[in-house]
Amino acid sequence: MATISASMVKELREKTGAGMMDCKAALEANEGEIEASVDWLRKKGLSKAAKKSGRVAAEGLIGLELSATKGVLVEVNSETDFVARNEAFQELVRSIAKVSAQVGTNVESVLAAKHPTGVPVSEALTNAIATIGENMTLRRVAEVSVSAGVVGSYMHAAVADGLGKIGVLVGLQSTGKADELVALGRQIAMHIAASNPQALTAEGLDPAIVEREKAVLADKHTGKPANVVEKIVESGLKTYFKEVCLLEQSFVHDASKTVSQAVKEAEGKVGAPILVTAFVRYALGEGIEKQESDFAAEVAAASGVKA
Questions:
Q1: Do 83 and 181 form a contact (C-beta atoms < 8 A)?
Q2: For 197-209, what is each residue's pLDDT tens digit?
Q3: What burial class does residue 223 get, using C-beta atoms within 10 Å of its C-beta: 0-12 exposed, 13-18 middle, 19+ buried?
Q4: Can you list the domains of the chain with their CATH numbers?
Q5: To which H or E segment does residue 302 belong?
Q6: Is 55 exposed, middle or buried (0-12, 13-18, 19+ CB in 10 A)?
Q7: What is the rounded CA–CA span in Å between residue 34 and residue 177?
Q8: Are the beta carbons of 239 and 213 closer than 8 angstroms?
C-alpha cells in the first residue's frame, strides 16, 4: 500500500473540496494516485463542492468565543455578504469558534478537530459549501488570554451575538474588580476597532516597518546636514509611534489622554494595577484580493449577447 502523506491529502482537498478523512480514504483506495482519487470521490458524490473551491471567498463573518480569562477570534470566509445573514452559516462560524477555544490557533488542527456534528470541522465546512452553494474557508484563528483579570472584547457591525465584521480582543492582566475591568476592556476594544493600532508599544513593531519609516522620513529631507536629518527622523518616529502603537494613541473616548493614561486612571476604580498584555483585531477580508466583476458584461454573456 502506498504511503499517504499529509501533503497528498491537502492537495486532494484543495482539488475536490472533500473532507479530510474522505480524501485520505480515496488516496488509500487508489494507491496515492491524485487523479484517480478525484474520480473516486466524484463517483461517491463527495466532491460536490469542488467547482466552488476555486472561487474567491472574501466575505463571511468574524466569530468570537469568550470566557473570563480567554477569548478566541476566527474568520470564516464566504463569497457573498448575503451568506453572513444565513442562520446555518452563522451557526457554523459560532461552532468553529467554540472548537477553536478548545483546540488552539493552528488552522489545520482546528480543521482536523471534531465538530459538534461528529465529523471533522473540514467536513462540516465542505457540507456547508454543498448545502449553501458558496465557497467557504476557515482563514485564521487567534487567541488572547490572561492568568488573572479579563479579556475585553468588541464586535463591530454585529449580525448576531459574537458574530460580525470586525472583532477585537484585548487582555487586561489585573487582580482588580472584574466588572470594572470588563467595562474598561470593552472601551479599549472599541478603540482598537476604530484606530487599528499595529502593536502595543514601539518595541512590538516589526523592525523592518520601523526601518522603512526611517528611510521615508530621511528621504524627505535629502541634502540637509546629517545631524539635522537625524533629529527630524527621531521626531517623525515619535509622531509615527503615537499613530500606530496602542498605548500611545489618543484615546477615542477621551482625546485629552492616551490609552496608557486612561488605563492608569482606571486603576483607581479597579482597585489594582492593570497591564494591557496583548490585543487582536480581525477585520473581515482584510488582505484578500477581491475579484472585480463587470455585472453588465456577465448578464450579456449569459444571454449570448456581446457587451
A1: no
A2: 999 999 999 999 9
A3: exposed
A4: 6-47 (1.10.8.10), 56-145 (3.30.479.20), 206-244 (no CATH)
A5: helix 295-303
A6: middle
A7: 58
A8: no
223 Cβ contact partners less than 8 Å away, ≥ 6 residues apart: none
User: Which of these, 42, 75, 40, 71, lies nearest to 60 by C-alpha position?
Assistant: 75
For cell 455585472, the residue is: 295
In our burial notation (b when 16+ CB lie closer than 10 A, e otherwise), range 160-199 reads bebbbbbbbbbbbbbebeeebbbbbbbbbbbbbbebebeb
What confidence tens digit (pLDDT) does each residue in 223-271 have? Answer: 899 999 999 999 999 999 999 999 999 999 999 999 999 999 999 999 9
Say whether pTM exceeds 0.90. no
For 209, the grid coordinates are 516597518
